[in-house]
Structures are given as C-alpha cells and as structure tokens.
Amino acid sequence: MVYENLILLIHVALAIGVVVFVLLQRGKGAEAGASFGGGASQTVFGSSGSGNFLTRTTAILVAGFFLTSMALAYVAKQRAEDMNNINVPVSEQAAPVESDVPASTDDGSSALPTE
C-alpha cells in the first residue's frame, strides 16, 4: 500500500513535469522568426538554444512516466489477484425452524381451530 502511494505520487509529479516541459518548448514555426533577428532569445541556453535541453528532459520524464505506469499496472494486477484468492468461509446454514403458524389445507381453509 505504501509503495503504491509512493509510485502514484511520483507518477503525478512526472505527468505535471511532462506537461510543463512540453509547453515550454517552441514549435517549428518559432525558429523561423528567430532566424530574422531574434537571436537574443537564445542567450539563456547558449548559442545552440534550449531545444536540446528541453527535448532530453522531456524524454527522460516521459520514460519515467512510462515506467511508473507499468509499475502501477503491476500493483493493480497483484491487488486484483489477492482479492480473488481470499477464501471467504461459507456461513453455516441454520436448520429450518418449525413454524408456530400451521399451514393452510388443500381446500383453502385454515388449519387453525375455530371457536
């Protein structure tokens, strides 16, 4: 149970990281604008730009997300197998109890004594 919660926490963190890093990346159309005088936009990550760093980081996060997905699937499978293997004892059936109320007769009249 503790491992499942830990894996789930890491899984959610990786999912958020993948979304953030995908949104940080520029599309192919943004590179064309940078080539016409927008060279100052690449100074933070050097002359090669941020593409290589963001691409590698996104790939690592996606690989971790995939691994945690597989781990959660394995944990769920184990839990389902454990639930199927639980031996629930069959409760003992109570012996039939004679009723104090007499049954009716075949002709529809009651078997109760009349006064």
From TrEMBL:
Q: Which residues form a coiled coil?
A: none
Q: Which Gene Ontology terms of cellular component type are present?
A: plasma membrane
Report TM segments.
Answer: 53-76
Keywords associated with the record: Cell membrane, Membrane, Protein transport, Translocation, Transmembrane, Transmembrane helix, Transport
Q: Which Pfam families match?
A: SecG
> Topology versus the membrane, per the UniProt entry?
Multi-pass membrane protein
Record region (Disordered): 91-115
Q: Which domain of life is it from?
A: Bacteria
In this chain, composition skew of type Polar residues spans 106-115
Q: Does the keyword Transport apply?
A: yes
Primary location class:
membrane
What NCBIfam families does UniProt report for this protein, alphabetically?
A: secG
Name the UniProt record assigns to this protein: Protein-export membrane protein SecG
Question: Which organism encodes this protein?
Answer: Reinekea blandensis MED297
The record lists the lineage as: Bacteria, Pseudomonadati, Pseudomonadota, Gammaproteobacteria, Oceanospirillales
